[in-house]
Amino acid sequence: RTLRWIFRLTYLSALGGVAYIGYGIYQDRHPPPQVEPDPSKKTLLILGSGWGSVSLLKKLDTENYNVVVISPRNYFLFTPLLPSCTTGTIEHRSIMEPIRTILRQKRGSVKYYEAEATSIDYERKLVRVRDESEVRGVAVETDVPYDMLVIGVGAENATFGIPGVREHSCFLKEIGDAQRIRKRIMDCVETAAFKDQPPEEIDRLLHMVVVGGGPTGVEFAGELQDFFEEDIRKLIPEISDRFRVTLIEALPNVLPMFSKQLIEYTESTFKEEKIDIKTKTMVKKVTDKTVEAEMAGPDGKKEKVVFPYGLLVWATGNAVRPLVKDLMSRIPAQKESRRGLAVNEYLVVQGTRDVWAVGDCAVAGYAPTAQVASQEGNFLARLFNNMAKTEALEEKIRELSSSLNIKPGNTAEVSREIEEYERQLRRIKDIKPFHYSHQGSLAYIGSEKAVADISWFNGNLASGGRLTFLFWRSAYLSMCFSTRNRLLVINDWLKSKLFGRDVSRE
Ligand code: FAD
Ligand code: NAI
Which CATH code for domain 165-318+437-499? Predict the structure, then answer.
């Protein structure tokens, strides 16, 4: 009897799952009708198509505004799985969601222009935008007016002005970066396997150097080692002993945002995986074939070390984009801010009106993560939905109050109605400031192991290993943007497990 119930429940949940996926697909294929901008509504201009902007769009009731989205990237990128694209564990299109399909699901007037914002005039409420794509028409540059502006342009790669970094290294922020790395790994491998290649050149070509021991560098190093152990070693065994990964970090340890226990676990796992970690080592210069660094010894004495490399991946965090820097320099209240646009507790850019900022380009006192950016985007959606309701209620109260003066017949009833609207208005206007709720940190460290620092009943739960890896996979799968993304990612995981990663170089 119990078995029969278990069977029924499993059957029902499987049915529910299929219905959920089916409904998701149906919705994607049958978007609501879209309308032209309504001149009586305010224009809400959103810059960027990343975590902050897309989370805002997802929850925003777009019928309340004329929405305009501007971004040079016509898709949303699920960055947590980007390191897996560098080795082909996941194909890049599986973690991209076209902005057009996202916007087609929205009601009201929502327009998208593929362009880069080049300057913001916050006094005249204008944004200058430029089409930077390869194909250009007659119109290339124009001004877009707004009533309300949200800046969600993210950040660029920090290089700290270190010579040679921009010219010789690969970054890991965008899809193009992951594709470049994937090609470069295979180029190094095939060149190392070339007939009569001298041994010292094979060693250089197969030395993969990662600079920056934050989560980007650590996850990439783990993915790289997996790729080599699980695929390259089997396909090209003659060079397999020469492959090395070195992770260089200026601080005394990697993953500074994780607990001590997980830092130690990561470092010991890397040792087992034969990933060489060089801590207290600061890179000073990069050439086309070497990385020059200063390494502090146990006595604090600094010595110069040179690492020849085949592939160099630079992952030393974020820097402010020129658009944001330029805006900050023109707002007196932003004088003291260095790492991005200083915002208040409602994410309003300090020193401006009707301008908000979200994500990596905003300084609200939190780390530059997808988790923070998406919560900020959700908060702005609630705020804007409430603001629209407030305006509608105020309009109704104004209308009723003036009708009281014109035809005083049913005064009691109208007054009651006004009171009710005022009560609703007080409730809506009472919006609490933005508060970030940290759900925890997760990182993949290679060999099907992950580390997790999870917030748990006001405490912290630290775990690392294979079970955490399963948790990491299911957490990121559930966070993928769409049903389509989820299915594609599952397919990629299965494909690379069953048949190995695709090592063809495009
Ligand atoms: P982004 O997501 O970077 O989006 C910025 C958008 O602005 C893009 O669409 C860009 O094209 C657009 N843009 C740029 N310039 C302009 C312009 N001039 N005009 C208009 N639009 C412009 N965080 C986590 O919490 N968990 C993770 O597991 C995690 N993994 C990561 C892995 C990698 C490899 C990387 C690089 C980051 C990871 N992060 C993670 C951090 C996270 O991706 C960022 O914090 C997050 O993307 C910030 O969101 P955002 O909206 O501010 O910027
Ligand atoms: P990061 O800022 O977290 O780490 C960069 C590291 O590079 C620092 O530890 C720094 O000491 C080091 N560094 C800087 N200059 C150096 C030099 N010259 N030589 C050697 N080392 C140097 O940057 P990262 O990893 O790119 O992450 C950016 C943001 O994205 C962070 O907020 C991070 O939390 C988030 N992120 C989160 C992930 C996750 O939760 N799994 C994954 C990837 C990124």
Answer: 3.50.50.100
Strands 275-278 and 66-71: unpaired
Q: Write down the ipTM of this complex.
A: 0.99
β-pairing verdict for 66-71 and 43-47: parallel
Domain 31-155+320-388 falls under CATH 3.50.50.100:
yes
31-155+320-388 and 165-318+437-499: same fold?
A: yes
Which one-letter DSSP state was computed for residue 33?
P
Q: Is 442 in the pocket of ligand 2 (CB under 6 A)?
A: yes
> In this structure, are residues 316 and 282 in contact, taking their beta carbons and an 8 Å threshold?
no
Residue owning the nearest CA to atom 15 of ligand 2: 316
CB 295 within 8 A of CB 302: yes
Q: Which residue has the higher pLDDT, 323 or 395?
A: 323
95 alpha carbon, closest ligand: 1
| Ligand 2 atom at shortest distance from the alpha carbon of 218 | 25
In the chain, what are the domain boundaries?
Answer: 1-30, 31-155+320-388, 165-318+437-499
279-334: per-residue pLDDT in tens? Answer: 999 999 999 999 999 999 988 899 999 999 999 999 999 999 999 999 999 999 99
